Amino acid sequence: MARLRPDGPSMLHLSQHLSAAADHIRDRWPTSPRVGIILGTGLGHFVENAQIECQLPYTDLPHFPQSTAIGHKGQLVLGRIGQLPVVMMQGRFHLYEGYSAQAITLPVRVMKELGIELLIVSNASGGLNPQFQSGDIMVLDDHINLMFDNPLFGVNDDHLGPRFPDMSRPYDLPLVELALSIGRQQGFPVHRGVYAAMSGPTYETRAEYRYLRQLGADVVGMSTVPEVIVAAHAGLRVMALSAVTNLCRPDTLGETSAEEVIDAAQLAEPKMRELVLGVLAEAIPT
């Protein structure tokens, strides 16, 4: 039986919703951003690196969901990093909050409508790869969608993207290589790997961790993949970074709490910040 989710625009009404939200933002900030950044768990303070020109709470934006996740402030921050105009989501949305996949990815389409060329996504994740340690950073070069949901369900709007978007390379490989290079230059390890997306909100069982590792996943989390699917549908370049927080070792598994995940993600934030700033400086000409 299909799951019912509130506030999810159908594909037929999506253009109207994103246009209304984009027009509302342009009225308050007429600049066209070149980069959109989704600040997930642990990277919310990245806005301190920007010259902030406008802040819009999600409650003020037409058709935007409201962020309820711990550590997600819930506002759109618009401004510049150096001379580069950017739009940043300080807090994202998740399936486990009760929203549809279409609703939680609406902001990506709005950022595309505003003019972005590149989407940078951050998240916190559990480390499945035994070589990973808490506080490490992984740059995504692929993912496994185990949410059993897709933001492209329904009638396709051909003006927004193709009916069957290619997903052979959802993450921009030159940016993956650039992130790895920046990590080496800065003196900290950056892993490259596969992110498995689960719907949550429960953390996984020992059997699920073993299953995910056998599938080839290096980390597991509860976000990112819906946004990346929509970004691919919209023709955006994508880079995604994951802060490894809790270690998912089935044979020595302890209890995991949201507070511990947030604390570990905050410890990884300086490295995440250096990677994002380095990529913006080298990959996006001003």
Q: Your description of this structure?
A:
The structure is a single chain. The chain is α/β, with parallel strands linked by helices and 286 residues long. It has one domain: Rossmann fold (3-Layer(aba) Sandwich). The chain has seven helices and nine strands. It has helices at residues 11-28, 101-104, 106-114, 173-186, 206-215, 225-234, 258-283, and strands at 35-39, 51-57, 75-81, 84-90, 118-127, 137-145, 190-197, 219-221, 237-247. The protein has a five-stranded mixed beta barrel with strand order 5-8-7-6-9. Helix 1 (11-28) crosses helix 3 (106-114). The model is unreliable at 1-7 (pLDDT under 50).
Second rung of CATH, namely the architecture:
3-Layer(aba) Sandwich
Uncertain regions: pLDDT < 50 for 5+ in a row? 1-7
Would you count the extended β strands for me? 9
CATH homologous superfamily designation = Nucleoside phosphorylase domain
Structural class: alpha/beta
How far the N terminus sits from the C terminus, by CA atoms, comes to 50 Å
Average pLDDT number: 90
Considering the chains and any ligands shown, give keywords for the structure.
Rossmann fold, single chain, 32% helix, 7 helices, alpha/beta, 9 strands, 286 residues, disordered N terminus, five-stranded mixed barrel
